[in-house]
Amino acid sequence: MFIERVVHNVCDKIVKSKLLQCSVRLKHTKDLNEHRAKVMGRGLPERKPLPGVKSIILVASGKGGVGKTTTAVNLACAMKVIEPDKEIGLLDADVFGPSVPLMMNISGEPMLNDDNLIEPLLNYGVKCMSMGLLVSGENAVVWRGLMVMQALDRLTRHVAWGPLDCLVVDTPPGTGDTHLSLAQNLPIDGALVVTTPQSAALQVTKRGVNMFEKLKVPIIGMVENMSHAICTSCGTKNYVFGNTTKDNARQMGLNIIESFEVDQNMSDCINSGKPAIYALPDSIHAEKYRHLANKVFKYIDDKDKEQIKATEQ
Ligand SMILES: Nc1ncnc2c1ncn2[C@@H]1O[C@H](COP(=O)(O)OP(=O)(O)OP(=O)(O)O)[C@@H](O)[C@H]1O
Ligand SMILES: [Mg+2]
């Protein structure tokens, strides 16, 4: 109880005063681990909807550095571009290494509204929230277990997300506390699995897919990133990382919804805070992100129709 109270207070302080120096040292690591195992061992709690949020889509992969955040950022922006009347949100659930603020070009301390909820920051018409806006990166990396769960609770239930048609959630690499916590606590409509073609990445991706199956999170499909490079002089496609994604996707029973080649412009755009969908709207990448956004909208639509049908029967 003591540890839980300490963790709770720490998170509350961060949210309320947006402290940039979080100097908590948890002394009883053993107690914390035991408590965490107990909490996680209670089985699947009820997945409570986020007030005012119609659907939630995860962007995930077991592997790091494959382009999850690039995909999540461009997807959220593309959804806003093709359906400007819809409200889209982007949650950076990577509390260890948040990169949404950089890629969405957002900064500054978020404000609290009259209901004591954090107001998301808006850019490119997308409502964004990230731990990177609340604590400095150095502090975020010490967070583990329960603290991660508390932090995610604050980023989801203590943010004024609604009204939202879709919340896109960028997740950290791995298959750890964050994924478990999100899948256990939120009604996730579907996950997009991002991978690169290297066999190492595909192996780890399989672990991620297994995790989602166990957690009963439906997988919308696979996004292959950095599929190949095109020679700038002769236009030849070079499969520098191999060309086995299709076979692996088939084995996992997944469709590849879209493939994105390696492109320096993509990287330059996203790292300068102007996603390709806006910086290079006529590029092949922007077109593919619009296609991906369309697929996600259709997936959500079909799911809604199925639910309506099920309740009518
Ligand atoms: N198709 C692409 N072409 C060129 N560069 C890309 C492409 N996709 C992503 N990148 C670059 O690769 C790097 C890693 O991308 P990103 O941060 O999106 O990966 P990630 O999976 O979110 O990483 P992490 O696991 O650390 O969160 C970034 O610098 C990004 O600009
Ligand atoms: Mg990332």
CATH architecture label name:
3-Layer(aba) Sandwich
Query: Radius of gyration, Cα only, in angstroms?
Result: 19 Å
So what's the overall shape?
A: globular
Tell me the count of domains. 1
Number of helices: 12
Strand content: 15-25%
CATH-assigned homologous superfamily: P-loop containing nucleotide triphosphate hydrolases
Indicate the multimeric state: single chain
Output mean pLDDT.
Answer: 86
CATH topology (fold) name: Rossmann fold
Span between termini: 46 Å
Provide the helix percentage.
40-55%
Find the count of extended strands (DSSP E, 2+ residues). Answer: 9
Query: Tell me about the biggest sheet?
Result: 9 strands, mixed
Ligands bound to this protein structure: adenosine-5'-triphosphate, magnesium ion
Q: List low-confidence stretches.
A: 17-26
| Content-based structural category | alpha/beta
Order of helices and strands: HHEHEHEEHHEHEHEEHEHHH
CATH class: Alpha Beta
GO biological process, one term: mitochondrial respiratory chain complex I assembly
InterPro entries: Mrp/NBP35_ATP-bd, NUBPL-like, P-loop_NTPase, YlxH/NBP35
Organism: Diatraea saccharalis (sugarcane borer)
Family: Belongs to the Mrp/NBP35 ATP-binding proteins family.
How would you describe the overall organization of this protein?
One of its GO terms (molecular function) is ATP binding. Keywords: 4Fe-4S, ATP-binding, Iron, Iron-sulfur, Metal-binding, Nucleotide-binding. InterPro entries: Mrp/NBP35_ATP-bd, NUBPL-like, P-loop_NTPase, YlxH/NBP35. One of its GO terms (biological process) is mitochondrial respiratory chain complex I assembly. There is one protein chain. The protein has 313 residues and is of the alpha/beta class. 44% of the residues lie in helices and 16% in strands. Strands 1, 2, 3, 4, 5, 6, 7, 8 and 9 form a 9-stranded mixed sheet that branches. The model is unreliable at 17-26 (pLDDT under 50).
